[in-house]
Amino acid sequence: MAGVLARYRRSLVERTKHHLGYPYNLDFEYGALSQLQHFSINNLGDPFIESNYGVHSRQFEVGVLDWFARLWDLEKDEYWGYITNCGTEGNLHGILVGREVFPDGILYASRDSHYSVFKAARMYRMDCVKVDTLVSGEIDCADFGRKLLENKDKPAIINVNIGTTVKGAVDDLDLVIETLEKSGFKDRFYIHCDGALFGLMMPFVKQAPRVSFKKPIGSVSVSGHKFVGCPMPCGVQITRKGYKGFQKEVQKCLRNAHYLKDRLKDAGISAMLNELSSTVVFERPKDEEFVRRWQLACEGSISHVVVMPSVTVDKLDTFLNELVEKRVTWYQEGKCQSPCIAADVGQENCLCTLHKT
Ligand SMILES: *Cc1c(COP(=O)(O)O)cnc(C)c1O
């Protein structure tokens, strides 16, 4: 085993010396991070949604995303994004968002686009139109305009290359936008910028056209193991927060509401949560001071918490811990029993002495 690894290492050292053709920055030093290799760090898909899994790096992920968002002119609260496993995944995600915004949209991409773009078209069963390129490798906007006019009835989803794989050509984003607007596609297009290769370099090139969310683009992705030279494949994906943002917020509310309901029941407190709702109904706390402190709205023998985007798992935990602690004093040693609220929440949700089990 040790021999196999040593041979492999020698071959990697030798091959690293003679490496020119692929866009990977092999010049990195990540020693400081090696101490973190002993942990199963996992952000479970969305750095903005809290979960019970504590071995995560969400604070760092969000820090990285904030940096990229600013690079492309979006404020903290205007974007959603995540660290992907590569530039390919960023393209798959960006094009998917485009298709969600325009379900019947046609995907346009220049012939020199990365194969992951055409793979996305097949995966999502989208109509895909290949656009010619200039000798430089840039998208040919004359051909693009002609093809748009052939499909005037369908919205357009466009992959714009910030650095093509083979020729390193940067598509003219401004001309793409102008072509779309001139062809009558105003407000009927979605632009994904594939910045896997140069997305991170163009902001630092003075004469380069700016990739910026001040322009009508929907998403940008970059590859993390190319210019940055991350030792394992990774990437960054940033999308404008539009209704996708709302969708995320809604999902967060529903998830946190489930969390609250489950924890209430685990603590032996009667609770109900309707399927499409983020309102958790539970037994009215016996102490009016507690009710006032948490500003609970009560009706008869029930109370509720309405989980909105600002209600975090942390806040719910504080609330639950206090409630559980206080409740022991309210119903101590069976002197006084917890109330039956089956009439309000149904027998299956009631955990009074009669209905529990
Ligand atoms: C490399 C590359 C990709 C894919 O990035 P990976 O991180 O290798 O998945 C996508 N688009 C372009 C233009 C690329 O050069």
Structural write-up:
By secondary structure, the chain is of the alpha/beta class. The chain has 2 domains: 20-241, Aspartate Aminotransferase, domain 2, CATH 3.40.640; 251-349, Aspartate Aminotransferase, domain 1 (Alpha-Beta Complex), CATH 3.90.1150. It is built from 10 helices and 11 strands. It has helices spanning 2-17, 58-71, 87-101, 115-123, 141-150, 173-182, 243-266, 288-293, 313-330, 342-345, and strands at residues 79-84, 106-110, 128-131, 156-161, 189-194, 219-223, 235-240, 271-273, 279-283, 297-299, 302-306. A 7-stranded mixed β-sheet has the order 1-7-6-5-4-2-3, with helices on both faces. Helix 3 packs across helix 4 (115-123), helix 5 (141-150) packs parallel to helix 6 (173-182) and helix 7 packs parallel to helix 9 (313-330). The longest helix is centred in the last third of the chain and has 24 residues, at 243-266. The radius of gyration is 27 Å and the shape is globular. The model has no long low-confidence stretch (mean pLDDT 92). The chain binds pyridoxal-5'-phosphate. Pyridoxal-5'-phosphate is lined by residues 86-88, 91, 114, 116, 161, 163-165, 194, 196-197, 223, 233, 235. Pyridoxal-5'-phosphate binds next to helix 3.
